[in-house]
Amino acid sequence: MTHTFCAELSQQQHDPLAGSAAHAEQNLLISWPRAKWQRNLRHASDMADPLKTQLDEIAAAGRRVNLIHRRAQDATCHQIFLMPERRRFNVARDELPRFLDRWRQGHSLAKWEQAPPEADLILCCTHGKKDKCCAKYGYRTYKALAAAVLEHALPFDVWESSHLGGCRLAASLIVLPQVRKYGRLHPEQVLPFLRTEASGRRFLPGYRGDSRLTPAQQCAEVALLERLEFEAPFSQLTLTDDQGDEQQRTLRWQCQQAEHTTTFEVQCQSVALLRVDTCADLDQGPTESFVWQATRIEAING
């Protein structure tokens, strides 16, 4: 195999973005210097073992734990976010175990709590120890995001992040608390992406889907948004029905545009694709995966 980056191979295999947005809705984010991140998305080399155990237990209970970073953040005083609750805390390193214990037990966190974040968070994966694509593509996109938000006063709070899933789709991003995922976002796309998200729409060239939906539902949503991009770009979509099996699904959506409602039916088909998921898999070569493709979109009323 001549390719050295899984992201390059993924594009050449026409590996779709839509339907790849799996992610937990509940998130715990802890600032920690990127230089100390280990391959595990929630561990750092200078973390005490009991703290690693705490974070593993939190993840096992269903809340995703990611490390985040930016240069201006104090290395020993950690910014912590709980999403989707939109809670923010500032916690000294030696108080982290106590903070996590009190949070898990439902006790007051007033000692550490700050004002809720007003802006949505954008996390961009730069976790090079997990996959070299995230170092190569992720870091330059992160820099472009941070610069554009500052220059154009856009309503986002941008951080580097440990592994977000979909290394082959680098640069990989997520918008929180809405859990919308994006992939293959290049620096030259950053400003239109930010402006589109700020307007309440999805940036379709890089949109992977809403993580609260299943992969087939994500695929159908993206296909329908593409259909409506020019005729009704500010439509509100509501999933009303989802029928079928693991090979084929038929989904119905209500499309609300101003005072007009249209119902669309989207049919999605599962198809096999040979792909490499991460750079670590390059030596063994592609393996079979299944992805969803929209095969039919039809307005059934309106």
Structure description:
It is a single chain. The chain has 302 residues and is an alpha+beta fold. The protein is 24% helix and 31% strand. The chain contains six helices and 13 strands. A nine-stranded mixed beta sheet has the order 4-3-1-2-6-5-7-8-9. Strand 1, helix 2 (49-60) and strand 2 form a beta-alpha-beta unit. Helix 2 (49-60) runs parallel beside helix 3. The relative contact order is 0.15. The model has no long low-confidence stretch (mean pLDDT 93).
List the topology elements:
Layout lengths: L5 H7 L14 E5 L17 H12 L3 E6 L7 E7 L3 E6 L3 H9 L15 E6 L6 H21 L3 E6 L11 E4 L3 E3 L7 H9 L8 E4 L4 H14 L7 E9 L3 E10 L2 E16 L11 E13 L3
Helix pairs in contact: 2-3
By DSSP (H or I, 4+ residues per run), the number of helices equals 6
Distance between the termini: 51 Å
- Biggest β-sheet description: 9 strands, mixed
Average pLDDT metric: 93
Beta-strand content estimate: 25-35%
- Low-confidence parts: none
Shape summary: globular
Cα Rg: 20 Å
The arrangement of helices and strands along the chain is: HEHEEEHEHEEEHEHEEEE
Q: Considering DSSP H and I runs of 4 or more, what fraction of the residues is helical?
A: 10-25%
Which structural class is indicated by helix and strand composition? alpha+beta
Strands in their spatial order, largest beta sheet: 4-3-1-2-6-5-7-8-9
How many beta-strand segments? 13
